[in-house]
Write a structure and sequence with these properties.
The structure holds two protein chains of two kinds. By secondary structure, chain A is of the alpha/beta class. Chain A is 35% helix and 25% strand. Chain A is globular. Classes of the chains: A alpha/beta, B mainly alpha. The complex binds adenosine-5'-diphosphate (ADP) and magnesium ion.
Chain lengths: 255, 312
């Protein structure tokens, strides 16, 4: 699309609280365009909390607060004046359990583009086809676009959710354990897809499958008890971790 | 269970199981007996008047002619009117309570809405006679007929007596509102968080999320609530009898008095002297029973369907 890639996320001294409970401690991390960053760590260590901060999914939870900054291409995502709707269109999210709407495949993908604006039929057709192609789902569903999305297999549903996010043409794609409910073949499909998508997206994927982190990511960040213990190129983090806790985790000594 | 049957249940267990089974079975049995009893009692009238029992407006106890059409019409129209008024209000209340109300307001408001269902029917009737009917006669009906110039349309024509189909529809609307509203609130709250988050994450506003993801997901459950309300409205007797005017005539005008099946039975049962009159009232009861049964079965089915969908 563009030659200067947008979608650079810079997190600076970010801390987050659920009521009195602090879930994230002073996180500083850069997420670069055209890369995949994996977030790893034992469950409950704040990976989802971190991910959901980037598209402000916490907004609806009463009693939460945060300090620090999260910048998307230089703009402060957390600023109260920021248009959250616009933010969420630029930052797509895919959840742990696929959550298609009980609507047709077509209407699922068209949901985002139809919000706020009313694209014409042909425009929508085009966007839907392109999104499904990018999500490597087009060939499997092109003859049944009007059928319910609930009839798709688990892996297909998850790719549909990716297509649905892509239809908004986001700059950043956040995925929270997208493969944890999928079989190895479906998982492989998604991994190949992410590899393809990173050409024009900033991708962040939470996974507690370390092999997956090793296979798909360029960078890996290790979270533990709400802290970012260590981050760096995936290869380096897995072969020569600087921190003892990182080594303990990747060698399976805890978590 | 399997272990008790393998090793033989103790006497206490067996008595207990027998008693609970008997109690459980006695309910459907009672319903069947009731239906049979009503049908048998209604049979002479149904046989004598055949279809004209449902289609004729002649209800003359002295000459022994019975056509229940005005009561059937009145039941259906007053209930439909109640739903048209109550449904949007009830859904609005439910959306407010489940999606927008701050936590401290949610419980109290829900409590008061539910309390509407606990007010005795006769109290609604008294309120209807002393507040609603005068209000309609002196303000609402003249306003609709003259100010809005609806007086020329068949639906708002004729003199404004007060007791009317409109009064019955309004009072029923208030009475069914808590039923529709509490079922709707429950199905809205049962919409999975994942569905809401899916919409929000795609850039939906709060309201777009409700309209595009929450309401469609809950729609058949809401429909179930509406039909449950309809079931209530169809059978409501006391309050309606007190405000509908009890006249045996079909009129398109909502200002005109009317009748309902339940009111007809309640009014005439104590005076029914000959067998045919009694049988005709039983016939009205049978029609009412059949309609409410069907309506409730549809409601259950719709709610069951949405629950199954939610589990899948
Ligand atoms: N809605 C919430 N309210 C309160 N505490 C929460 C909430 N969500 C998560 N937490 C807590 O925050 C911590 C981090 O959770 P989470 O980000 O989900 O971890 P992860 O995704 O790494 O498993 C956990 O201790 C969890 O109990
Ligand atoms: Mg998580």
């Amino acid at each position: 699309m563009t030659t200067t890639h947008t979608g650079a996320v810079a997190v600076e001294h970010y801390s987050f609280w659920y009521g009195p409970k602090q879930a994230l401690f002073d996180i500083t991390l850069d997420l670069a365009p055209q890369t995949i960053t994996a977030l790893i760590g034992p469950s409950g260590c704040g990976k989802s909390t971190f991910l959901r901060s980037i598209n402000r999914m916490h907004d609806l939870l009463p009693g939460t607060r945060s300090t620090g900054r999260i910048l998307l291409d230089g703009d402060d995502v957390l600023a109260p004046s920021l248009d959250v709707v616009h933010l969420r269109q630029r930052v797509g999210m895919v959840f742990q359990r696929s959550n298609p709407f009980p609507k047709s495949i077509y209407d699922n993908v068209a949901y985002g583009p139809r919000l706020n604006r009313s694209p014409s039929r042909t425009e929508t057709d085009e966007v839907v086809e392109q999104a499904l192609r990018r999500a490597a789902l087009w060939d499997e569903v092109k003859d049944r676009l009007r059928e319910s999305a609930m009839g798709l297999s688990g892996g297909q549903q998850q790719r549909l959710c990716i297509a649905r996010a892509l239809a908004n043409e986001p700059d950043v794609l956040l995925l929270d354990e997208p493969c944890s409910a999928l079989d190895p073949i479906a998982t492989q499909h998604i991994e190949e897809l992410l590899w393809e998508l990173k050409k024009d997206l900033t991708i962040v994927i939470v996974t507690h499958n370390l092999q997956q982190a090793g296979r798909v990511s360029d960078h890996t960040a290790f979270f533990y008890l709400g802290q970012l213990v260590e981050h760096g190129p995936t290869e380096q983090l897995f072969t020569a971790p600087r921190e003892e806790r990182t080594e303990a985790y990747i060698t399976g000594r805890f978590g | 269970m399997p272990s008790t049957s393998l090793h033989g249940a103790s006497a206490g267990d067996r008595i207990y199981r027998f008693a609970t089974t008997a109690f459980a079975l006695s309910i459907p049995l009672l319903l069947v007996l009731l239906g049979v009893e009503v049908a048998v009692a209604a049979w002479p009238a149904l046989k004598a008047f055949k279809f004209s029992f449902l289609t004729s407006s002649d209800w003359d106890a002295v000459n022994g002619v019975f056509g229940a059409a005005p009561a059937i019409y009145g039941t259906i129209v007053s209930s439909a009117l109640a739903l048209v008024i109550a449904t949007p209000l009830a859904i609005g209340v439910a959306i407010f309570l489940s999606e927008f109300a701050p936590a401290w307001l949610r419980q109290p408001v829900a409590f008061f809405v539910d309390l509407l269902a606990a007010i005795p029917s006769v109290v609604y009737g008294l309120w209807g006679i002393f507040v609603l009917v005068p209000l309609l006669r002196e303000h609402v009906m003249p306003f609709l007929a003259d100010r809005l110039h609806l007086g020329n349309t068949p639906f708002f024509s004729g003199p404004a007596y007060g007791p009317s189909m409109l009064a019955a529809g309004l009072i029923l609307a208030i009475m069914v509102l808590p039923y529709i509203s509490s079922v709707t609130r429950e199905v809205l709250m049962a919409v999975p968080r994942a569905q809401r988050e899916a919409a929000l994450a795609l850039g939906a506003t709060r309201w777009e999320m409700i309209r595009g993801a929450v309401l469609p997901y809950a729609s058949s459950g809401i429909m179930g609530g509406v039909i449950l309300g309809l079931g209530r409205a169809l059978g409501e007797t006391m309050a309606v009898t007190m405000v509908i005017g009890n006249r045996h005539e079909i009129s398109a005008s909502l200002f005109a008095p009317g009748y309902t099946m339940a009111s007809l039975i309640a009014n005439e049962f104590s005076e029914a002297t000959n067998d045919m009159h009694l049988s005709a009232l039983m016939g009205v009861g049978a029609v009412l029973l059949a309609i409410t049964l069907v309506v409730n079965i549809i409601a259950r089915w719709l709610v069951w369907r949405v629950q199954r969908q939610a589990r899948a």
